[in-house]
What does this fold into?
Amino acid sequence: MKRSQINRVIDELIEVADREGFKLPPFAGWSPEDWKPKDAHYDHIRRTKCGWDVTDYGSGDFRHKGLVLLTMRNGYPDGSDRPDQKSFCEKIMLVDEQQVTPTHFHHRKTEDIINRGGGRLVCKVWKATEDEKRSDEHFELLKDGAVIDCPPGAEIALDPGESVTFRPRTYHEFWAAKGTGKVLAGEVSSVNDDEQDNRFLDDVARFPDIEEDEAPRHLLVSDY
Ligand SMILES: [Fe+2]
It folds into this structure.
């Protein structure tokens, strides 16, 4: 991805969050210059990979296969009991109409995906089989705390305020429905570990190669 596009989509998330009245943590607004004097007291942010994350999953087509997100809080995936450990993670994401986050599940993470405002978010879901394929079985999951029955490949529509829970080994993909507008989507989960915990159905690159065509306005977690 070009750095200019990364800069642009981060600014857009900041703008939409502001419009929706969703306040972001201070480090969301820090420039690379702001980061420079931040000493070891700020290592928790860096080490738990809080901050900006923009990916096109290696597609070269961010608009249709990609995601911009901010990890606002997270713990260490090693489960250690250090003084700055947390057992939870929270993210905020901006999802465009028909911009797909490709099919994946998590081995350990349980997550709620939440529509925080904007258009309609659609989540398509399957149970994973033992051999990590998409199961053709019905299964149950929680939507806003209520049990619902899901046929394989069920599409769950979330309007602002609504949420769905994905337990481990639940395949999911999501996008904003056509004609409804971009969605400010939240995620509240157990600790996030992009290195070990993601199982994408198809081969994707979780972090993009970056073409430095302009100066970064925000650091990505992969820039720390
Ligand atoms: Fe996920």
Notes: Residues 105 and 143 are 17 Å apart (CA to CA). The domain at 3-223 is CATH 2.60.120.10 (Jelly Rolls).
